[in-house]
C-alpha cells in the first residue's frame, strides 16, 4: 500500500481553510486505498503530543521553535522540519513526500526527499508573499517579498511534480519560466458527503441577534482587508434605497474587525448591519440558515486574481445563493448568471446596484442553487479530484522503479 507523508504548515485540530483542505485530501487519499500521515513544523501553534490523532488522522509534530535574526531563523526552521521529516521516514518508510505551501515547508520537504531518495511533490495553495501583502503583514517588492518568491522558485524547480489549486497560480509559474508539463491542477474541493439539504431558517437565532425577514446579505469568515467588507458596508445605504428591509450579517472576526464596526456605526444603514463576532464551528450552519445571499466582495489584487477561495464552493455545495466580486479567483468558480452573481470589485455603488437587481430576480435563484450544486459535484468533489494525485503518484513511483532508485533512509538518519 502506497504511503504518502504530507508536510504541512499547520493542521487539525486548528480550524482554517488550510486545515479543512488538508483534512479532505488526507481522508480522500485514505479512502482511495493509500496510507497517509502529516507532519507540521514550528508554525503549528496548538499544543499537543509529538504524535497526535485528530479525526482518525495521524500528525507528527516538530515543536522546536527556531531563534535568530530574520533569514537565519527561517533557515533554522527549514532544517528543524527537515530533520523531523527524516525521523518520521526512518520509522514509517513513506514512498512519496508531498509538501504543501508555504515555501518553508516546500524547501524542508525537498531537502529531505533528496537525502532520502524519495519522489517529491510540491503543492501551492497561494503565493505567500502575496498573501502577506493582502493581510497587511508584507509589502510588494520588499526584500522579504522577493526572498520568499525566490525560495518558492527553487522548490518548484526542484520538485518532481507540482500542483496548484487554480489556473491563475499555474499560469504565473509558467510565466516565470517553470516547466508547465510538471504542473497540474488540484482545485479547491468539498466533501459532498458532508453537505446535505440546507437546514431550515433558525428563527430563534434570528430573533436573538436582531435579524428580520430580509433580504439578508451575509459574510461568514475572517475579516481581512482584501475581503472587501468595507465595500459591502458602504454599499448598504444604496441597497436599502431599493430594498428598505435589507440587512447585512457579518459573522467572524479578524484584523479589520474594529475598523469595520466603526464604519458600520457611522453609516446611515448602521442599524441594518449585524456583527456576531466569532462563533464556534459547530454553530456556523445556524448562521448560514439566516442568509439569503452569501457575498464575497474581495478587492482586486494579485492575491485575489490568482487564488480561488474555498468558501463559495462550500456555499454552493449547500445550495446557497452566492454573489462575489469579479476577480480572477472568483471567475474560476462562479459563472455569472448561471451559478451565481459576479459584481464589480472595489465599487460600492456597483455592488449595491448588482445586488438590488439580483434580489429583484429572486425567481432565478432555484435554478442557480441547482446549477451551483451540480458544478461543485462535477468539478470540485474530492471523491473525484483525488484521482489527480493518484495518477501523479503512480507515475512518479513507476519512474523510480524504472530508474532503479532505492530509498536511502537508513543511511541518512543519524
UniProtKB/TrEMBL annotation:
<feature type="domain" description="Glycosyltransferase subfamily 4-like N-terminal">
    <location>
        <begin position="17"/>
        <end position="189"/>
    </location>
</feature>
<dbReference type="InterPro" id="IPR024004">
    <property type="entry name" value="PEP-CTERM/XrtA_GlycosylTrfase"/>
</dbReference>
<protein>
    <submittedName>
        <fullName>Glycosyltransferase, exosortase A system-associated</fullName>
    </submittedName>
</protein>
<dbReference type="Pfam" id="PF13579">
    <property type="entry name" value="Glyco_trans_4_4"/>
</dbReference>
<keyword id="KW-0808">Transferase</keyword>
<dbReference type="InterPro" id="IPR050194">
    <property type="entry name" value="Glycosyltransferase_grp1"/>
</dbReference>
<dbReference type="Pfam" id="PF13692">
    <property type="entry name" value="Glyco_trans_1_4"/>
</dbReference>
<dbReference type="GO" id="GO:0016758">
    <property type="term" value="F:hexosyltransferase activity"/>
</dbReference>
<dbReference type="InterPro" id="IPR028098">
    <property type="entry name" value="Glyco_trans_4-like_N"/>
</dbReference>
